[in-house]
Design goal:
alpha+beta; 5-stranded antiparallel beta sheet; two-stranded antiparallel ribbon; 6 helices
Length: 186
C-alpha cells in the first residue's frame, strides 16, 4: 500500500472526503460504489466496487457461449476494465483498463455499431489491436454497470465481421447486455 501524505478528518456525520486528485487518478466518479475493508492493524481500505464483477464467472461463461454460437469475439466490461472475454487473448484483455472511447460509448447508454467511415474504437488503453464492432451498455436498476461488445482484429485476414451477419451480431449483443443487466437486478 502506498501512502499519499494526505490527511482528512471525519465530519460529524462520519464522512470523509476523498481528494480530487485521488478520485481522478483512481477514476472514482460521483455515485460510484466503494467497498470498505478493514484489517487487524486498524487499516480501513476503500476499493472500487464492480457490481458486474460479482458475475465475472457467469460473464466468462456467457462470453464463451456467444463466441461459440455467434462465431464472434466478445468482451464484457464493467465501467473501468474488461472482466471477461472470449476469442481474444485473455492475458492481454482481462482486468485491463478500457479505452476512453469505449468508456464514452458506454456512458452514452445506447447501442453502438461500427461502420467503415467511422473511427475505430479500441477495447483497452494498453492494447489497441482489437476494435469494437458492436457495443451495448449494461444497465441495471437504471445504473450503468458496464457493457458487452463484439470485437474484431482489423489486421486479421478473416474476422467475425466476415462470418456473422451484422443484424445477428447486433441482436446477440443487445440480448447479452439486457440479460446481464437483469441478472444483476435479481
Amino acid at each position: 500500500m502506498k501512502a499519499t501524505g494526505i490527511v482528512r478528518r471525519i465530519d460529524d456525520l462520519g464522512r470523509v472526503v476523498i481528494p480530487k486528485e485521488i478520485r481522478r487518478t483512481m477514476r472514482i466518479r460521483e455515485g460510484d460504489p466503494l467497498e470498505i475493508y478493514t484489517d487487524r492493524e486498524g487499516e480501513v481500505i476503500f476499493k472500487k466496487y464492480s457490481p458486474i464483477g460479482e458475475l465475472s464467472v457467469f460473464a466468462a461463461q456467457y462470453a464463451e457461449t456467444l463466441h461459440r454460437v455467434g462465431e464472434m469475439s466478445i468482451v464484457i466490461c464493467d465501467r473501468d476494465s474488461v472482466i471477461a472475454c472470449a476469442g481474444v487473448p485473455k492475458r492481454d484483455y482481462v482486468e485491463k483498463q478500457i479505452s476512453q472511447e469505449l468508456e464514452a460509448l458506454s456512458e452514452a447508454r445506447s447501442f453502438y455499431e461500427w461502420k467503415e467511415e467511422m473511427n475505430r474504437v479500441p477495447v483497452t488503453r494498453e492494447n489497441s489491436s482489437w476494435q469494437v464492432s458492436c457495443a451495448m451498455p449494461i444497465i441495471s436498476g437504471g445504473d450503468l454497470v458496464g457493457c458487452v461488445a463484439s470485437v474484431f482484429d482489423p489486421s486479421a485476414q478473416s474476422t467475425s465481421r466476415d462470418r456473422t451477419p451484422r443484424e445477428v451480431e447486433a441482436k446477440l449483443i443487445l440480448t447479452a447486455a439486457g440479460f446481464l443487466g437483469r441478472q444483476m437486478e435479481g
